[in-house]
Amino acid sequence: MYKQEEIRNFCIIAHIDHGKSTLADRLLQRTGAIEERLLKSQHLDTMDIERERGITIKLQPVRMLYHEVELNLIDTPGHVDFTYEVSRSLAAVEGAILLVDATQGVQAQTLANLYLALEQNVEILPVINKIDLPNADVAGVSKEIQKLLGCRDEEILRASGKTGIGVEAILDRIIEIVPPPHGKEEYPLRALIFDSVFDEYRGVIIYIRVVDGSVVPGQKIRFAATSAETVVEELGALCPGLTPTKELTAGEIGYVVTGLKEVKLSRVGDTVITAAEPKTAALPGYREVRPMVYVGIFPEEGSEHQTLRDALERLSLNDAALQFEPEHSAALGFGFRVGFLGLLHLEVTQERLRREYNLELVVTSPSVAYRVYLRNGESLVVKSPHDLPRMETIERVEEPWVSLDIITPASHIGGIMPLVSSRRGEYNTTEYIGDRALLHYRLPLQSILVDFYDKLKSASSGYASMNYQLDGYETADVVRMDVLIAEEPAESLSTIVYRDELVERGRKITSHLKDVLPRQQFVLKIQASVGGKVVAAERLSALRKDVTAKLYGGDVTRKRKLLDKQKKGKQRMAEHGRGKVAIPPETFISILKR
Q1: Got the DSSP string for 11-43?
Q2: In this structure, what CATH number is given to the domain that contains residue 239?
Q3: What's the rounded Cα separation, in Å, for the pair 362 and 383?
Q4: Which of 177, 211, 226 is the last residue of a domain?
Q5: Can the keyword Transcription be found in this entry's annotation (predicted)?
Q6: Any domain includes 185
Q7: Of 37-46, 208-217, 285-294, 475-484, which range is least confident?
Q8: According to the annotation, is 9 in a ligand binding site?
Q9: Residue 197 has pLDDT above 70, yes or no
Q10: Buried b (16+ CB within 10 A) or exposed e, 540-576
Q11: pLDDT of residue 58
Q12: Domain count, the chain
């Protein structure tokens, strides 16, 4: 057990792909936290999806020892969709390594994570990474960081996560400038839950930062927000695996096996206190997370509805940004309306549901949360196109807007400005960081949901980066557009669109459906309509079967007789709906990406 003066808690924050996980590998290697033979690339990225995509999705804590000092590191994600994970990490530490790629310089998410760190009042340690690369511009990036932080050049460390250059200097600087914790060991227990996981056999395992007091195995603890009580079955440090210890004291980061089987009883941001002191004041929680994107998620097999519910509950245990509520569709059955922080968050969650719980899903088109004000004075929040009331009852609809920051080389401004303007963007200001420009815009969240990031990369030859955050609501002229396939509404394809984009959006969706839907035995009508009025339509020709192949001669009337019989059969099939169209799940994602 270490005294608080011998403890340093810190995390690594950076833009995506700036080398956080690689640097964490070198820190683990240098401190001997894991044996050389067991060390693998991106060791703290525990999910297969993280390794395949080369990104960090989940924060991951680990304890290291260096020069008789206990170092608690939390590796964090870099993508804008997982900003909430970063805020949770920062709430549990006193210092942060601000990592900047020597070849890319300061990016949008670098700024966003820096602002989060400054809000939490943690000590910032600037580090330039990847200095070993031939195209590294260390001097230029150093000037950008100096302008950003107001620091001196000698305060910025140089390192290479790949080769291990500068790793010892980083460890020494952490011990030097990151302040030790200042908890009250004699006070009653107060610990902040910053993450949690569910184990099939051991129940809920919470990751905590002990602020005051201490916790030991066998102690009866209480969760301040839910008032649930349980006995500590085991506790310890993450080194990086679960390593049991006899005690966790003020200032330390570790895990607690609670034995709880109900995931709702343990919430991220809650305070753990001792059951003997139920009136102990709770710690300030995290900022409340608000989902940006909502989609309907339905199991392909209706019998798997309960399995989907259990899976979402367990995923939400260690992903506080994931919010869901029951939803019913006449076509898709029972499912859930799920809120996400962005499309990458949606894709990752969908993939985890498929891999970890063997669920095949149908995912509807994404939408944002609209505020709808009715003529009778009532108001409601609409998260699904099907919840939008009839247009004659609506006084006005308000949609969420975001403040958007784009960092790009100054030479690409001319291609980016028209793109943002075409998405209803409102220009604010431009700042310059070295030879790059920081553009500030406001625009509707709906405008950047699907393909905006891809278009931004194209307009800037891959050099631009972006970050956004919610910035209020404004009035929008929107309507619900339904999609009919074989004259039957495909509820999962309904969307809320701007009135002046109806025809264009309708043509795009019907044209795309014509390309991706499987052909049927009859002519398939594909229509987009608003209030019963068709605004776009396509026809998918029937799948032809050569019914005359068995003929080997004879009069032509025999051939016509068979063709007429086939034609009448196709008409009956279309009229009676015998060939109802099954829409493949991948169709929804392909339309979403379009």
Answers
A1: EEEESTTSSHHHHHHHHHHHHTSS-TTT--TTT
A2: 2.40.30.10
A3: 17
A4: 177
A5: no
A6: no
A7: 37-46
A8: no
A9: yes
A10: bebeeeeeeeeeeeeeeeeeeebeeebeeebeebbee
A11: 54
A12: 5
For residue 457, which amino acid is it? K
C-beta neighbour count of 425 within 10 angstroms:
23
Looking at the structure, tell me whether residues 567 and 428 fall in a common domain: no
Query: What residues pair up with 394 in beta bridges, in sequence order?
Result: 374
Which DSSP string do the residues of 353-379 spell out, in sequence order? HHHHH---EEEPPPB--EEEEETTS-E
131 is annotated as contributing to ligand binding: yes
Give 189 or 46, the one with higher predicted confidence. Answer: 189
Domain with 223, as residue range(s), is: 190-274
Is 41 annotated among the ligand-binding residues?
no
Is 83 labelled as part of a ligand binding site?
no
8 A C-beta contact, residue 439 and residue 483:
no
What does residue 560 show for φ and ψ, rounded to 5 degrees?
-65, -35
Q: Are the beta carbons of 200 and 255 closer than 8 angstroms?
A: no
DSSP 550: T
Binding residue per annotation — 249? Answer: no
Backbone angles phi, psi at 195, to 5 degrees: -170, 165
> 3-class DSSP state for residue 423?
coil
pLDDT-derived band at 45, boundaries 50, 70, 90: very low
541 annotated ligand-binding residue = no
- The dihedral through the CA atoms of 146, 149, 150, 152 has a sign that is negative
Amino acid symbol at 459: A
Is residue 113 annotated as involved in ligand binding? no
Q: How far apart are CA 554 and CA 355, in angstroms?
A: 58
Average per-residue pLDDT in the chain? 82
Model confidence at 427, in pLDDT bands (50, 70, 90)? very high
pLDDT at 276 over 80: yes
Nearest Cα to Cα of residue 583 among 506, 494, 481? 494
Which of residues 320, 340, 366 is at a domain's end?
366
pLDDT at 477 over 80: yes
Q: Tell me if 208 is assigned to a ligand binding site.
A: no
User: What DSSP character marks residue 515?
Assistant: H
> Residue 129, annotated ligand binder?
yes
